[in-house]
């Protein structure tokens, strides 16, 4: 965390510092005792005695940073050093709290509650429509002034006050940094800070000089606090955009009739191009656990800027931009993540934003169910094209195109507890090889021969016609493909 010279002047005010501060940059993040042979660093506050810097100086303690000076009304060097170290401890602890709040999904009010000692005065935050968002809750109704009470009670500024305020400065939402107005506008002196992102006004914070005039150090603390609020807005907006992006991707991969235009438009705003080579990877866990899916999905979004990751059903779907990082590079980077989380992955075929996003995800979703499923491995789904084709046939063909023998055999097996349906399937798969079929089904040869004879009697088919056999086998594969979809 980096502090300013004015913040230290405020911290050391009981020593009645005489300040000569011109730059006042937020650069100080370390402290050292001054010595003539030390090489001065821009990020360090140096503490010494006046006589260390000037020939006619005395033992009074002086703090310096760049050309900024604080001359203190004390000669106790050790006490000042400890006091400055306490300042670093205090502000570092606050910084840790604020960063933890920002990364844990805290609300704006949480930032105000954690900063009441830093601010020291009543402060509030309004959105672009002048609606109340948060305030220092140690000040309640009746503790400050009428505008403060109105905001807390009504949730926004008084309209008459707003009209008068806007007439004073119509361009106020474009102001940068801390600014103030004629005290006649407010019951008390007030200072304001605007928040914006990509040219859009997000709101403004106000701190009220209630009990005493605001020192430059106190205003620096207010400015420092506002940087955390700005970060909150940035994170919050990014999360909102991420949620919208997630929803758009889930929609287009789950609904064949959904328009991909909104998703494509948002991806183009992120810097993707219509001609970029894209590919889907589907990540599946050996042990299903939704909380692991969401954690892995969030981690991958942060680690890989060229990947859009969302959870879908019981998997993690990755839309990868191969124009930003090749498939080989992407897979190599993903393997450690898969190994640590006990996932395996399957990738589909390359496409662009002008292709059907729905059908490309459907391809990798179906083919992923035919891979070997070993943790830490990434499989090529294009090696399992036939199951995908069978599933497409099943979804588009009318039921009557399936060979009627299949339904007949399923009904006979259910009634008589036999296995003629599976027997015919494996017999066709093994190209009518008696030995291979018997071995696959673990049947004696004579048992298989008996079953084949009964199959001819039940179906009326001799299986000598190659087109008839193809019809039967395709019907089987379409039915089996349907089990995975």
Write structural notes for this entry.
This protein has 485 residues and is an alpha+beta fold. The chain has 18 helices and 15 strands. The strands form 3 sheets. The chain has a 5-stranded mixed beta sheet with strand order 1-5-4-3-2. The chain has a 5-stranded antiparallel beta sheet with strand order 7-6-10-9-8. A 5-stranded mixed beta sheet has the order 12-13-11-14-15, with helices on both faces. The longest helix has 39 residues, at 216-254. The chain is elongated and about 115 Å long. The protein starts with a helix and ends with a helix.
Compact overview of the structure:
This protein has 18 helices and 15 strands. The protein is of the alpha+beta class and 485 residues long.
Query: Which structural class should the secondary elements be placed in?
Result: alpha+beta
Binned strand content:
15-25%
Instruction: Report the C-alpha radius of gyration, rounded.
Output: 36 Å
Helix content: 40-55%
- Poorly predicted ranges: none
SSE blueprint and pairings:
Blueprint: H1 5-11, E1 18-20, E2 30-33, E3 44-49, H2 50-53, E4 61-65, E5 68-71, H3 77-103, H4 108-113, H5 116-119, E6 123-126, E7 132-135, H6 146-154, H7 159-168, E8 178-180, E9 190-197, E10 200-208, H8 216-254, H9 261-269, E11 278-285, H10 290-303, E12 307-312, E13 315-321, H11 327-341, E14 343-347, H12 357-367, E15 378-380, H13 385-396, H14 404-416, H15 420-429, H16 434-441, H17 445-459, H18 466-482
Using brief descriptors, characterize the structure shown.
485 residues, alpha+beta
């Amino acid at each position: 965390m980096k502090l300013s010279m004015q913040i230290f002047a405020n911290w050391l005010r009981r020593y009645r510092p005489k300040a000569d501060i011109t730059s006042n940059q937020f650069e100080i993040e370390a402290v050292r005792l001054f010595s003539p042979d030390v090489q001065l660093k821009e990020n360090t506050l140096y503490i010494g005695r006046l006589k260390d810097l000037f020939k006619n100086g005395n033992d009074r303690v002086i703090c310096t940073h760049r050309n900024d000076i604080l001359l203190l009304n004390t000669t106790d060097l050790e006490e000042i050093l400890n006091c400055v170290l306490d300042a670093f401890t205090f502000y570092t602890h606050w910084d840790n709290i604020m960063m933890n709040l920002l990364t844990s999904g805290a609300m704006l009010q949480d930032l105000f509650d954690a900063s009441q000692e830093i601010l020291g005065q009543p402060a509030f935050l309004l959105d672009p429509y002048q609606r109340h968002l948060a305030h220092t809750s140690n000040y309640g109704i009746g503790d400050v002034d009428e505008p403060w009470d109105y905001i807390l009670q009504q949730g926004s500024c008084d309209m008459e006050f707003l009209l008068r305020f806007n007439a004073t400065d119509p361009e106020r939402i474009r102001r940068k940094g801390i600014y103030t107005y004629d005290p006649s506008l407010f019951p008390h002196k007030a200072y304001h800070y605007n928040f914006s992102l990509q040219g859009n006004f997000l709101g403004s914070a106000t701190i009220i000089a209630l009990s005493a005039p605001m020192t430059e150090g106190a205003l620096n603390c207010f400015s420092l606090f506002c940087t955390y609020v700005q970060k909150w807005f940035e994170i919050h907006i990014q999360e909102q955009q991420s949620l919208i992006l997630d929803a758009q991707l889930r929609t287009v991969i789950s609904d064949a009739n959904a328009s991909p235009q909104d998703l494509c438009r948002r991806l183009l705003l992120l810097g993707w191009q219509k001609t970029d080579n894209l590919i889907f990877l589907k990540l599946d866990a050996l042990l299903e656990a939704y909380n692991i899916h969401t954690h892995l999905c969030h981690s991958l979004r942060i680690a890989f800027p060229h990947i859009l990751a969302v959870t879908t059903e019981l998997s993690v779907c990755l839309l990868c931009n191969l124009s930003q990082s090749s498939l080989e590079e992407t897979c190599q980077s993903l393997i450690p993540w898969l190994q640590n989380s006990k996932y395996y992955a399957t990738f589909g075929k390359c496409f662009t934003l002008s292709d059907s996003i729905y059908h490309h995800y459907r391809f990798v979703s179906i083919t992923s169910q035919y891979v070997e499923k070993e943790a830490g491995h990434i499989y090529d789904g294009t090696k399992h094209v036939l199951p995908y084709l069978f599933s497409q046939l099943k979804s588009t063909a009318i039921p009557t195109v399936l060979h009627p023998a299949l339904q007949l055999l399923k009904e006979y097996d259910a009634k008589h507890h036999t296995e003629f349906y599976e027997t015919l399937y494996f017999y066709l798969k093994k190209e009518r090889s008696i030995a291979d079929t018997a071995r696959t089904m673990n049947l004696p040869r004579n048992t298989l021969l008996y079953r084949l004879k009964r199959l001819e009697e039940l179906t009326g088919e001799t299986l000598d016609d190659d087109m008839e056999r193809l019809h039967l086998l395709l019907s089987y594969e379409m039915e089996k493909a349907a089990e995975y979809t």
